[in-house]
Amino acid sequence: ENTPELRPTHPLALAPVVAPAASVDGFAKQFLQNLNFDQGVTLSNSDVNDQYLALAYTVRDYLMARWFDDRAQQKAQQNKTVCYLSAEYLLGRQLDNNLLAARLTDIATEALAQCGIDIDDLRAVEIEPGLGNGGLGRLAACFVDSLATMSVPAIGYGIRYEYGIFRQAFVDGQQVEQPDAWLRMGSPWDFAHPEAAQTISFAGTTETYDDEGVERTRWVPEWNVLAVPYNMMVPGYHNGRVNTLRLWRAVATNAFDLHTFNSGDYVQSVRAQTFAENISKVLYPEDSTPQGKELRLQQQYFFVAASIADFIENVLPDDFDLEKLPERVIFQLNDTHPVIGVPELMRVLVDEKKIEWDAAWAITQKCFAYTCHTLLPEALEVWSVDLLGRLLPRHLEIIYKINDAFLLEVRERFGDDELLIRNMSIIGEHPFRSVRMAYLATVAGSKVNGVAELHSQLLRDNVLKDFATMWPDKFTNVTNGVTPRRFLRLANPELSALITEALGAGWTVDLERLRGLEALADDADFRERFAAVKASNKRRLSRVLDARGEPALSDDHLIDVMIKRLHEYKRQTLKVLHIVSTYEGIVSGRLDVDAVQPRTFLFGAKAAPGYGMAKRIIHLINAVGDVVSADERVQGKLKVLYPANYNVTLAESIIPAADLSEQISLAGKEASGTGNMKLALNGALTIGTDDGANVEIRQLVGDDNFFLFGMSEPEVEALWADGYRPADFYQRDERLRSAIDLIASGAFSDGDRTVFEPLVSNLLYEDRFMALADFSSYLDAQERVDAAYADQDGWVRSAILNVARSGYFSSDRAMRDYLDRIWHATPIG
Ligand code: NBX
Which InterPro entries does the entry link to (predicted)? Predict the structure, then answer.
């Protein structure tokens, strides 16, 4: 703040910041300099981690000048900034992405080679920042990539967790969790800015006071913590832009607890500081059924309050008229996790900036928009009034006041319908008094969107029905997307080269151009080359798995992948039932072994550590895999692979090698899915239900190139309303009976019938996600898969058409939709 005006005289200090020369020599020089003077080693003394860090610093140096420019421009310009508020960013590795964006891949490879270093060895040591659970966190990472590539001024705000999503290991086929110490070897991609720290307060009381004749309220907090920003550069692809991802880390303030300090127990006081630093210690690994833990609410408020303050103080010009805030910012709420930002902005405007309530509310409503990512009622976040009032007393008062005004509006509109009022209230009463964060977000947001057409429709019809009646125009859809840079260009270099040869290079930023491949699906020569790429990707995956100690992939196998968080609604058990049924069919002679295509079933999934049923399903997959893969009676035709610790890095090897994409959630439960998009884009055919974005994928790729099965969402509702009895399906279908009986018999648990008993009885007597009801339809669809795969020409043709027709699922398109329908912000330059 108090930096004196600098008056430099040296010509170097007066010159603009310049990046190192974009040449092999320029790169090598900068690399060696970083190795020597930042890492503090000579080339001959350096190890691979030193070299990796020096390489990362070098790439960073190239991006830096652009970044300075963009930040200056962002501060000076009058454009609206998109502030994406997300508790999670599942970034994946940075090195390759940044080399690609800055057009440095070839230069770096050659410069390192001339230093005697194979860049692949350095790639291998990068630890990915796993600062997210799954789809929601990865979506945020795709969005910041697209925003930078589209030159939209944007800041991604989040938390710099010291420990990201846990590392998964298997012990006797069961998941064990290990801490993800991703920062241990250094973090070359971010910069700490302790001088720009924000002080974030908690707890205490509120009081009213007389402010020159006006009665105002102020918050008298009890303790506080510093939020230190760490900036990461988010380079756009080949456009010279660099946006910012600003992640906050909690650091104790000196005056964390003056009371203890003053008591004279100095050592105890210093130890107490770690309490505050716990806030950014660890990512919660639950991707649904939030536990309502105090630390989690602390995390949410911590990053959102820091982000709002940062935007107002550091991004807006000094003395900015906050009445105009909506012209300069949109805060996009990535699910309910940042929704506490709504009362926080109100507090800042009303208590601190002394703007009158109604005006402040009008501003706030224009500054937020809310994206919902779920349909499961248990996943909708609520905070007990008790906890929220203790941790954030002023915010609770503000929420009550927002609710009072909102319920008045409901009465005006619908009359005194007390049941409706109770149903719509932001405050719920049962089973305990709580704040319904999705309702708060809906009331406060200028727009509310779901993440696929079906999901948005179900939000309007069910989850948020009364709100949609009240404000039909508030609701909109933006179907998710994925970044083609990471998930096609980087993950699948051979297919990318083939596409570029056929269509030119523009597809990377204009994915609809993939349509040009449609004509080539009927070209035998192109099909052959496409198939050769798939085969090569399978060999590459095989090498990656081999390095992890997994068995090799067989060349001629259909690679059937199910990669996503482990969840009952996603129905990994349905997949297991198919495997067991096929195995049982071959062994019993019911199935003609020659009609079964050789297949490898490949799973990747982490379970929330406290989710018992999900962990039992993991155990079952591994147990079935052990038996099936080893049984000589299936003649090597069926293999099950479940590499531990599925993450973005592993996804980048699996997706390009996949033939079949399993998207088999119960209709009406998967909001969108994004893995489904990545797999289709890489030429896998989908076997899927009419759920989430599968609906749109099927519409685009065509029924002939998609294996649809299962109940539709209305059929699910009807069967459920009818009183669903899974045991009836078990009785009716012999294939299902044999499969379940085999599991129950102990065939996969050394004869011990107790191991999977809870799983079996859950299926027979509860089966919330109706795996048994969809089983026979699923098996029939799998028979169609076998038949289709037997015709390789036809299969490859379908695979090409999947690629050609998936351009819609670029996150660039998703960003355009957000810009047009919600943000109304424009690119710069
Ligand atoms: O968000 C996922 C949905 O399940 C997918 O259908 C969708 O494609 C994706 C992106 O829109 N949701 C998700 O990943 N949720 C979480 O990870 C999550 C994390 C923490 C939490 C609740 C949910 N408390």
Answer: Glycg_phsphrylas, Glyco_trans_35, Pyridoxal_P_attach_site
Domains 77-93+128-479+817-823 and 484-503+512-809 share a fold: yes
CATH class (in words) of the domain with range 484-503+512-809: alpha beta
Ligand 1 mean position, distance from CA 154 (Å): 22
Cβ(666)–Cβ(778) below 8 Å: no
Is the pLDDT at 266 greater than 90? The verdict is no
Q: How far apart are CA 755 and CA 132, in angstroms?
A: 32
Tokens of 523: 């070209």
CA of 415 to the centre of ligand 1 (A): 36
> Catalytic annotation on 754?
no
Is the ipTM beyond the 0.95 threshold? yes
Question: How many residues are given for the chain?
Answer: 829
The two tokens of residue 332 are 């996009």
Quote the CA–CA distance of 549 and 547 in Å, as a whole number: 5
Q: Are 770 and 716 in contact (CB under 8 A)?
A: yes
H or E, element range at 596: none
Distance CA 232, CA 466 (A): 41
- Tell me: the pLDDT tens digits for 399-454? 999 999 999 999 999 999 999 999 999 999 999 999 999 999 999 999 999 999 99
Paired with 383 in beta bridges are 435
Q: Give the class (CATH, top level) of 77-93+128-479+817-823.
A: alpha beta
- 3-class secondary structure, 279: helix
| Single-letter amino acid code for the residue at 758 | P
Please name every residue paired with 661 in a beta bridge, in sequence order, or none if there are none.
561, 686
CB of residue 373 inside a 6 A radius of ligand 1: yes
Ligand 1 center–CA 334 separation, angstroms: 10
Q: What is the DSSP string of 397-411?
A: HHHHHHHHHHHHHHH
Looking at the whole model, is its pTM more than 0.90? yes
- Per domain, the residue ranges of the chain are 1-76+94-127, 77-93+128-479+817-823, 484-503+512-809
Nearest CA to ligand 1 atom 1: 136
Give the number of other CB atoms < 10 A from CB of residue 270. 13
- State the chain's maximal CA–CA distance in angstroms: 90
Distance in angstroms (rounded) separating the CA atoms of residues 586 and 592: 7
SS3 278: helix
Pick 107 or 288 by higher pLDDT: 107
- The CA-atom distances, in angstroms, between 813 and each of 222, 736, 807, 819 are 46, 42, 9, 10
CA distance 399 to 361: 12
Residue 673 in contact with ligand 1 by CB distance below 6 A: yes
Q: Are 22 and 62 in contact (CB under 8 A)?
A: yes
What pLDDT digit, counting tens, does each position of 242-259 carry? 999 999 999 998 766 666
Identify any residues that bridge with 598 across adjacent strands, giving them in sequence order. none
Q: Which atom of ligand 1 is nearest to the CA of 284?
A: 20
The yes-or-no verdict on residue 2 having pLDDT over 50 is no
Q: What token pair was written down for 403? A: 């609710």
Q: Identify the residue whose tokens are 């969402």.
A: 713
H helices of 589-693, where?
612-630, 648-654, 675-681
> Which tokens go with 269?
């006081």
**DSSP string covering 464-506, please?**
THHHHHH-GGGEEE----B-HIIIIIIT-HHHHHHHHHHH-GG
Contact present, 677 and 686 (Cβ < 8 Å): no
573 within ligand 1 shell (Cβ under 6 A): no
Active site residue 674: yes
CB of residue 145 inside a 6 A radius of ligand 1: no
Rounded to whole angstroms, the Cα distance separating 401 from 384 reads 17
What is the position in ligand 1's atom list of the atom closest to the CA of 288? 22
**Inter-residue contact 229 to 420 (CB < 8 Å):** no
Q: What is the pLDDT of residue 255?
A: 66
